[in-house]
Amino acid sequence: MSILELKNTTKTFGDTIAAHEVSFHIEKGEIFGFIGPNGAGKSTTIRMIIGALTPDSGEIFVDDQPISKDPHYKNKLTYVPGDVNLWGNLTGDEVINFFMKTRGYTNTDRKDELIEKFRLDPKKKCKAYSKGNRQKVALISAFLSNADLLIFDEPTTGLDPLMERSFHEEVIRAKNEGKSILLSSHILSEVEKLADRIAIIRDGQIIETGQLADLRHITRIEYVVQAKGDLETLKSLPFVHEFTQDHDSTHILVDNDKAPEFLEALHPLQPMQLETRPPRLEDIFMRYYEDRSDQS
């Protein structure tokens, strides 16, 4: 069952189409990755979901109810942007307590656990916090909420690698508790590590949605080869890309759906060593934009 569904959601600003017929859904207990570069339409889409923007057309559903007809749907969501603004004269602890009170959450042991885990000094005033510490306050508040859907837009901005790991652990914990997560991030390895499914948005349009394994057809796989024959002869093949040499090995990127043809062409060259490296989400993401540049 879906916790969130967007159907042909469109938003324009003058002549600029920020989101065009965006459609996807998030299942309950699912981590959904939402990726694309700046200006692709991620933040516009998220702002429509949280009610900060009204779609020009299309519909958004939370728990199968259109949000346009449910004034209380926001109680089921919590949202953390990439750049958090807090009340400067309040301490971190006071801000967290405020959000706990608005959500009716009273587990102070859990609050203390998260404060320690994210290494936050809760007694400092927010105006004295760095960007990373402001982010921690918002993340702690989000994980303390009883929301069914957690929405994170570039959530680890300003966090060091140790705190990023803490964030990842808490996302998995939230999922295990049955919550759903919408994770929008430029850190592709983060999405690859956490997400059950992903959507790629470009120029305001969703261009792919699915499990990472289902998107392998649009990427390339890396082969590391040592052979007796001249591997340079493979350069002319239309499905071979980024032919580079490293010490005694040759690195070759091959269209994933052309692996049989590549191996057939490689066989006469008497390969002595062959290693394959599976494609990553970053490869999938960049492939789209490379292809678009080639067409422009």
Q: Kindly give the count of domains.
A: 2
N- to C-terminal distance = 41 Å
Average pLDDT confidence is: 91
Shape: globular
Helical residue percent band: 25-40%
Quickly give the structural class. alpha/beta
> Regarding CATH, which class of the largest domain?
Alpha Beta
CATH architecture of the largest domain: 3-Layer(aba) Sandwich
Q: Taking Cα atoms only, what radius of gyration do you get, to the nearest Å?
A: 23 Å
Give the number of DSSP strands: 14
Largest sheet, strands/sense/barrel: 6 strands, mixed
Explain this structure.
The chain is built from eight helices and 14 strands. The chain is an alpha/beta fold and 296 residues long. It has two domains: 214 residues, 3-Layer(aba) Sandwich (Rossmann fold); 59 residues, ACT-like. Chain A, domain 2 (Alpha-Beta Plaits, 2-Layer Sandwich), CATH 3.30.70. The strands form three sheets. Strands 6-7-8-3-9-10 form a six-stranded mixed sheet, with helices on both faces. Strand 1 and strand 2 form a beta hairpin. Helix 2 runs parallel beside helix 4 and helix 3 runs antiparallel to helix 4. The two termini are 41 Å apart. One of its GO terms (molecular function) is ATP hydrolysis activity. It holds the Pfam family ABC_tran. Belongs to the ABC transporter superfamily. It comes from Salinicoccus halodurans. This is ABC transporter ATP-binding protein.
